[in-house]
Amino acid sequence: MNLSAFFTLALASVLTFSSTAVGQDCPKPACCDVLVKGADDTNVGLNCTEGGIDCTFGGQVKACCESINSFTKVGMKCESA
Fold first, then answer.
1. How many angstroms separate the CA atoms of 31 and 11, rounded?
2. How many domains does the chain have?
3. Residue 57 CB partners (closer than 8 Å, separation 6+)
4. Long-range contacts of 13-20 (CB under 8 A, 24+ apart)
5. Range(s) of the domain holding residue 31
């Protein structure tokens, strides 16, 4: 097996595992710096990026958010994943 085929296979297995680990019913998997209680008693994610892959590498928490503002990077109605 050549190196590029091995890399492709390894990447595919990691992406498959990561997507199933977050859950299929998660609208927006994300990595956030922190989850805090918002004014409406739901969790808000701060400095969130969509994807939810390899969050711990960057020191972030894995979350599942209802929506993420791409400008402010604030996740709304987030739950820890």
1. 19
2. 1
3. none
4. 15/53, 18/52, 18/53, 18/54
5. 3-80
